[in-house]
Amino acid sequence: MEASLPTFLQAEAQLISEAAEALPHQFSSCTYTLGHIRQAVYLCLTCNLPRGICSSCSVACHTDHEQIELFPKRNFCCDCPTNALSHPCTLYLTQESENTSNEYGQNFNGIFCRCGRPYDAKSERETMIQCLACEDWYHESCLNLRERPPLRPPSPDPAEAAEAPGDDGVSEASSSGLPPPLITEEQYESMICRSCILENPTLRRWAGTKGAMMVCRPPAADGWKIVDGDTEEGKELSIAIDKQNASGDPTSLTEDVASGSKRRPESPLMGESSSKRVRTAAEGSKCGSSPCLAPPKNSLAQTILDKMLLDPTNNELGSGDVFFTEGFRERWCRCEECLPPLQAQPYLLEEEDTYEPPVDPDSESSLEELGMRALQGLPQDRAVNGILAYNNMREEILQFLRPFAEEGKVVGETDVRQFFEGRMEALQERQRSRECDA
Ligand SMILES: [Zn+2]
Ligand SMILES: [Zn+2]
Ligand SMILES: [Zn+2]
Ligand SMILES: [Zn+2]
Ligand SMILES: [Zn+2]
Ligand SMILES: [Zn+2]
Q: Which ligand is nearest to the CA of 88?
């Protein structure tokens, strides 16, 4: 580097604030006044506190800070204007007291997934998938969608690495170069992690049935399979499990579950004998006045969830996460038994709104919209090369603005528009491929 580090950092900070100014209105108001909403939340690693900031504050207030985008978090109020963060908010000038009703899960400590790993954009190669319910992020390998790939090796030559700061690691899509995962993002609409499945009796009941895929590895099967109750393979697997359960084989699953049930006799799940695991239509019709239209339970999926309750680390048969296919919200049975647990989590019945900054009414093809869509126009609740995207974008904006700063030129609207049009083409390309399954 020719420029000294302080000069470089100063120039970088200036570039980012120029980027912010060049996009009128885009980052001009903090969402604090909107209260608790579902919105893209950013974790500031430089401020180093388990708090979250809104997209405007991420650009306008914490410009020169290192950040990770946590993507949408529901019921979240921006912490930037509160005294929980010492760094002052530049958009909302009254200092407010700490937010008490925000929930700060492990993501706010930079920790993700049930494996509890921190996220490192430079070495991580896997796509991560967000749980619709808890909104934590999961590695594909932790969901049994693929083997855990080796991390990107650190650059062998430190001098070389210094010359190209993070360029390679950060700009590549995280799963690029890897074989496709067992379930691709086109095949499902939302993933719900097994902790969230276990907490909701209706979700639990649906697991592994049609449109609610589970990844399983039944005993004696070679590798992981998708089970959704409808495929021939799924049916065969379930039958095999039932047979095994009925046979009294000492190594069978029933045995595992039964021995566990001694420790947890109160569990209602254990009362069901193996032969009754598959509900008959007659049984199904008994819930309340309206007939229950829930599909018969998938015995393999239920066995896996039983095992997970007893030992969440036992991943032998499957981890119990469920991938719901397109239109799952319309398919629920709404009988007296099935509906209340769904109503307790309204996003299971109706797709919720995620805040997007308002469109600038003055500009025809709103620059703000282009900018925000480029920055945030990523699919929610599904596989995205998520957390990387923000850093990529920031890097690209910097690279785009650098020559202007070096030559002392003013960045014009046309320049910015050109930049985002290029980005939008790439995004639309991705969007198109995503919409193929819609
Ligand atoms: Zn804010
Ligand atoms: Zn900060
Ligand atoms: Zn702020
Ligand atoms: Zn993980
Ligand atoms: Zn979850
Ligand atoms: Zn029902």
A: 3
CA dist., res. 301 & res. 197, Å (int)? 11
User: Does 238 share its domain with 325?
Assistant: yes
Helix extents (H) in 84-183: 158-163, 167-171
Q: Quick one: 321 and 375 in the same domain?
A: no
For residues 109 and 228, membership in a common domain is answered with: no
Q: Which residues contact 91 (CB under 8 A, 6 or more apart)?
A: 27, 28, 29, 30, 56, 57, 60, 61, 80, 81
Measured in Å, residue 425 CA sits from the centre of ligand 5 at 33
For residue 132, which ligand has an atom nearest its CA?
A: 5
Instruction: Say how many Å lie between the CA of residue 113 and the centre of ligand 4.
Output: 4
Cα 117 to ligand 4 centroid, rounded to whole Å: 6
Same domain, 330 and 234: yes
The model's pLDDT over 171-184, given as tens digits with 9 standing for 90+, comes to 334 566 788 999 99
- Quick check: 30 and 81 in contact, CB under 8 A? yes
Q: Mean of the per-residue pLDDT values for the chain?
A: 75
Domain that holds residue 168: 5-180+354-435
Scan for tokens 């991390």, then name that residue: 151
Nearest-angstrom CA–CA distance, 140 and 386:
13
Cα(205) to ligand 6 centroid in Å equals: 10
pLDDT tens sequence across 365-380? 334 444 554 454 434 3
Q: How close is the Cα of 63 to the center of ligand 3, in Å?
A: 10
Q: Which ligand has the shortest distance to the CA of 62? A: 2
